Input
Amino acid sequence: EVQLQESGPGLVKPSQSLSLTCSVTGYSITSNYWGWIRKFPGNKMEWMGYISYSGSTSYNPSLKSRISITRDTSKNQFFLQLNSVTTEDTATYYCARYISTVPYYFDYWGQGVMVTVSS
Amino acid sequence: DIQMTQSPASLSASLGETVTIECRASEDIYNGLAWYQQKPGKSPQLLIYNANSLHTGVPSRFSGSGSGTQYSLKINSLQSEDVASYFCQQYYDYPWTFGGGTKLELK
Output
């Protein structure tokens, strides 16, 4: 069974970087596309970006140059880094698998990790 | 960005009732729409893709319909296990965007 698990610090200070790991079991990240999505307090959701089976990436323009998604295929993990965070980046962060070789919708999600940006 | 307006934000219904949740896109999304269910403390689960295709293993009481800018998720014969939040996602155009969610409770 495909499982995804997010991990990372639950508290980040403003202006610092947020770094999260998504550990995948039951499926290789060298297949499909893999994404990061966040859910803000109040339930608004935002697609952040993805990394493909080949390692190519695409990001939400709203995050401009603050975001980076990378991977370690030897550990079957992919990572989110969001720089220069503010309190507006406080959210629950999810990693998810796109359903196939096209990055349309998600069939497996992690449980989510809540990240608070506060001094 | 394509804006997805979901309604209602919350909904209370009785067991056995039929429930409809709607998503309206700010422009035509040509059936590029998915619906998800998220139970408290759980990860989201895919219900519907391509606006009206039922994902594997999803009960047939769930159905999706719509076209253009208007889409809906219908739950027939509401069961207690359907208590959850539901949200839509468009994938017609980047960046993918989501509806604001609907919280479904039992009356």
Remarks:
- The first strand of chain B starts at residue 4 and ends at 7.
